[in-house]
Amino acid sequence: MITPDRNAVLAALEAILDPRSQRGLVSAGLVQGLTVGPDRAGFMLEVAAADAQLYAPVREAAERALITVPGVRKAQVVLTAEGEPSVAPGAVRVRRGAQLSQAAQSDTAPPAARAANAPLNPAHVKQIIAVSSAKGGVGKSTVAVNLACAFVQLGYRTGILDADVYGPSIPRMLGSDAEPATNSDKKLIPIEAHGLKAMSIGFIVDEGAPMIWRGPMASSAVNQLINDVTWGTAQTPLDLLIIDMPPGTGDIQLTLAQRVALAGAVIVSTPQEIALIDVRRGVAMFEKTATPILGVIENMAYFADPTTGAPIPIFGRGGAKATAEAIGAPFLGEAPIDMALRQACDDGAPLVAVQPDHPASQRFIAMAALIAQSLKGDDARPAPSISFD
Ligand SMILES: Nc1ncnc2c1ncn2[C@@H]1O[C@H](COP(=O)(O)OP(=O)(O)OP(=O)(O)O)[C@@H](O)[C@H]1O
Ligand SMILES: [Mg+2]
Fold first, then answer.
1. Among 18-32, 90-104, 123-137, 171-185, where is mean pLDDT lowest?
2. Atom 23 of ligand 1: nearest residue by CA position
3. Which of 253, 342, 363 to mutate for ligand 1's pocket (most ligand atoms within 8 Å of CB)?
4. Which of 132, 141, 352 should be mutated for ligand 1, with most atoms under 8 A from CB?
5. % of residues, the chain, pLDDT over 90
6. Which domains does the chain have, with CATH numbers?
7. pLDDT digit string (tens) for 151-194?
8. Three-class SS of residue 76?
9. Whose CA is nearest to atom 12 of ligand 1?
């Protein structure tokens, strides 16, 4: 592998004219977040939303120019449009061939996508569940992936969407860095791993690429990752799409809660009080959009003593259950602190998929069964509306 010369990369980009200022791309300040690594180079071409179409050929030219630089085998130019979400044609262009199509406000946009607050539910997906927590690092992604695998064990056609465009973790947890292909409609074909259909910005933008989306751009990227993907077909619809939410209650979470007709949300918490304060905050966000809380999961609930098996409540225990009761939501169960669970995710082979009989896996399967029960007969909920006060 050869690392290309940064100056050569800059020179190649400077040779391309910015159609607005008639200056080279570098002098025009359009080369943002340049990354030059072994065999590759890439950057963000950040333009005003109204200019996205104008710059689509510039992005292509920039990619072609990068490929000519010695040492560059993979060129990646991400065209990002500042402004309202879903307004820029070709807003996210990424590894090799994949281009997330962008529809809203273009003449070819389907009418539903033009309305600013149109629901974002993809075709042929029966129900969508968000796995959420207001606090980071409580094990949302671990829970989301293992729950998704648990639904596969229960016979559901299941997909997982990584809504964390800043720190995607699903590709690593599923052990896949495949690049999604596109079909004739320019829709992305999800990656298949461990019986799941999966989509993540991490499959598209190289790991280590700068994720410097502004709020609206990030929401726009997530919208495309949900909608411009062939999750299912009319004959074989996806039964369930699990969304691994990013931490917090920011733009992306609000957009999703507001515009996706979620069948419900599963809240993940650790037992500590500090995490529980966040749970209440997270729940309040879903309440605003009238999204049902399907239940609360206490993750890292205890550590089983290696010799006796007795539970050691490292972070305390039972707090999530009490919170679930306080907010009137079902308590779905506990997931222990378990090295096998962590190791399996780090190895890219979720425990529930590879060892479904493991006691920790059994807990996830039991929790999935509880969720499935509360979902029965609820696949036609309309998209909620949101009001801010
Ligand atoms: N029950 C568990 N037992 C052991 N390790 C766990 C458990 N749950 C999560 N972890 C580990 O804790 C770390 C954080 O988990 P994870 O990435 O799933 O959290 P997250 O809430 O998705 O984080 P973020 O907020 O950054 O998205 C990971 O290293 C994961 O392997
Ligand atoms: Mg996560």
1. 90-104
2. 137
3. 342
4. 141
5. 42
6. 6-114 (3.30.300.130), 125-375 (3.40.50.300)
7. 999 999 999 999 988 788 999 999 998 888 888 888 889 999 99
8. strand
9. 139
